[in-house]
Task: structure prediction
Amino acid sequence: MYGRVVKRDAKATRKRILEAATAEFSRYGLAGARVDRIAKAAGSNKAMIYTYFGSKDGLLDAVAVDLVTWHVQDAPFDTSDLPEYAARVFDRYQQRPELMRLVNWDRLERGGEHAQSEEGKKALERKIAAVRQAQHDGVIGNHFPAHLLLELMFALIELRPTLTEGPLNKQDHAARRQAIKDAVARLIG
Result:
């Protein structure tokens, strides 16, 4: 079987690397993460990681873009029902706790400047503009400026994953989800 050419699947390799890197960075942060552990977990090698992502920082940025893209696509923003949107985002953080851990590592190690990709920053700008418009139209109360309202809403959503680890049982999850909806309803009322 000498001379047999093995076809590589670059897309599958990249996906495995991103999955392994997500787990590694969420557990150890940028400083503690090791490219050799990521390569081993992905069934790849360090050279391939550097070829695809350039550096460990570049790999972390790619992980962030991947998670932000997933989050934005799976939890579309809806100003007509911000309490339900907040509850869906809470659900997302419970499904993918590494998302919140990565954000916190970024805040600790890089000052939070890299937590959002350009896509994430643009999505936030669109959310602020949509809230402003909904406030202008009278759909949402204007007790708080749009950007502050979103900060308060996300603080409520992020509180539990920031303070504690581990999954919630169904009853606790439902109770916290409802509490977030109620609190956001009061913020926008």
Q: What stands out?
A: Residues 132 and 142 are 8 Å apart (CA to CA). The chain has two domains: 8-59, 75-188. The first helix runs from residue 10 to 32.
